[in-house]
Amino acid sequence: MQKKLILIFMALVMCVMVVFTAGCTDSGSDNATVEILYTGAGTMPGLLATGQIDGYINWQPFVAVALEGDIGKVISYSQDLPPEGTWKNHTCCVFGANSVALENPDVASSLSALIILGNKYINENPDNAAELTADWLFSSQNLTYGDVTVSSIDVMKTSIPTIKFSSEVSESWMDSNEAFILSQRELGLVTAKLASTSKDESAALLYDFDPYNSAVSQVESGIYITPEATSTISIGYLPSDHHAPLFVLLKDWEYFKTTYNCYLKPVTEKTGKITDAELYINGQKIADVKIVEGTGGPQLMTLLQQNAIQYALAGTPPFISAVDKSTGDMGLKILSPVMLEGSGLVASIASPANDWDGFVAWVKTSSAEGKNVVLGDPQLGSIQDVMLKSALDSAGIAYVVKSA
Predict the structure, then answer these.
(1) Which residue from 223, 285, 297, 395 could staple onto 314, CB 3.0 to 4.6 Å apart?
(2) Hey, which of 5-9, 171-175, 283-287 has the most confident mean pLDDT?
(3) CA-to-CA distance for 52 and 57, rounded, in angstroms?
(4) Averaged pLDDT, 9-24
(5) Total domain count for the chain?
(6) Shortest CA distance to 133 belongs to which of 114, 119, 146, 113?
(7) At how many degrees (to 10) do helices 210-221 and 105-124 cross?
(8) What DSSP character marks residue 162?
(9) Please, which residues bridge with residue 263 across strands?
(10) Phi and psi angles of residue 187, each rounded to the nearest 5 degrees, phi first
(11) Residue 77: what pLDDT?
(12) What confidence tens digit (pLDDT) does each residue in 245-293 have?
């Protein structure tokens, strides 16, 4: 595991100045250069379909959209990007809470147990989970990107199996988070509370695993603790299939009632997103629940800090950034993973590349011909951004930021 951290650290040290300059160069690159266009995750398939970019790195389901729409092909899923072995089981989305929520540890444990059970459902019923997720995110309607129309259900059936739905707090997951903190330091994005902490000190600031440990014991024993009834709680999430455990809990709530007698029951069952629900444990109503869709991880962190929501499913980077920059009494903690991996590098269907070696050759040939490959990238400092730059560095490919 230490080797993994060193690999990432060294790769990012080589190109840290990309944040402050036009790009990162390498004397062995033979002038091979990729242009990175920072743009919204949902806009990338349309940009690719209309030829405005040549490929992109993105999270699911937008990798699957390219495949189902026949506008792109997968060069590499994120866990297989170079340096070899670096990104296996890499961190992505987590379940977290603010300090107000953690004043009621039994409810936190109950919700953590439901996330575990939601992941179990997805792994045992991937096709059904895909259909339920397509219902939640797209009302099972077709998706259109330029002249390309794809079935949202087909997209989800392609996407869901490529995501590792797991709530396990493993050593590799912990190491992945620590590696990401190191990368953020080198990029100048972690500058406060986590700027110089040891691994153990970072863990003390970032995590509270007591609810998770209790949840694991309850799930394994089949004996669930009934919390005292409380008032309304709010859970934030993002409109991505990475958060499918929450969606299946609500869309197939009767399964969880029948199987575990612990469930989130929608106040009104309907096609599409659910906003109001009730939490039941051992058949007893515990709380009214607001389900709040966010526009991005940073916004959900703000809502947590304002106590507008008490729990959130969001990416690891926003939690790291929020904990690093936090002030005041409202603390935030990561409780457990929601899923791992779940991203990929896509190239245009017209490109000659079919794998990483072919991608490198394509980039070098294009640069030699005076036309750099342009890749979409969701955000500076995101997990996807860090992985892409590390992979390019390993191949001696430079990169510059392209103006929108």
Answers:
(1) 297
(2) 283-287
(3) 15
(4) 38
(5) 2
(6) 119
(7) 60
(8) G
(9) 280
(10) -85, -5
(11) 98
(12) 999 999 999 999 999 999 999 999 999 999 999 999 999 999 999 999 9
Quote the pLDDT of residue 285.
98
Residues β-bridged to residue 337: 94
Determine the Cα–Cα distance for residues 295 and 315; give it in Å rounded to an integer.
12
Kindly give, in sequence order, each residue whose CB lies less than 8 Å from that of residue 357, ignoring residues fewer than 6 positions away.
none
139 and 262 in a common domain: yes
Confidence (pLDDT) at 22: 34
- Whether residue 45 contacts residue 348, with contact meaning beta carbons closer than 8 Å, is answered with no
β partners of residue 268: none
Distances (CA, A) of 18 to 12, 198, 259, 367, 382: 10, 25, 52, 19, 14
pLDDT digits (tens, 9 = 90+) for 356-380: 999 999 999 999 999 999 999 999 8
* 33 and 58 assigned to the same domain: yes
Q: Report the alpha-carbon distance of residue 395 to residue 211 in Å, rounded.
A: 42
- Residue 360 sits in which domain range? 2-15+23-88+343-401
Q: List all residues 6 or more positions away from 3 whose beta carbon is below 8 Å from its beta carbon.
A: none
Domain boundary among 288, 306, 339: 339
What is the H or E stretch that residue 115 is in? helix 105-124
330, two tokens:
């409202």
Query: Cα(381)–Cα(387) distance, rounded to whole angstroms?
Result: 10
Q: How far apart are CA 382 and CA 375, in angstroms?
A: 15
Structure tokens at 326: 């936090």
85-134 per-position pLDDT tens digit? 889 999 999 999 999 999 999 999 999 999 999 999 999 999 999 999 99
pTM of the shown model = 0.90
Residue 10, SS3?
A: helix
CA pseudo-torsion sign 28, 34, 38, 40: negative
Q: Is residue 52 in a domain?
A: yes
Question: Which stretches does DSSP call E strand in 238-385?
Answer: 262-266, 276-281, 284-293, 311-315, 332-341, 343-348, 373-377
**DSSP strand E in 21-141: where?**
23-24, 33-38, 55-59, 72-77, 91-98
Helix axes 244-251, 105-124, angle to 10 degrees: 90
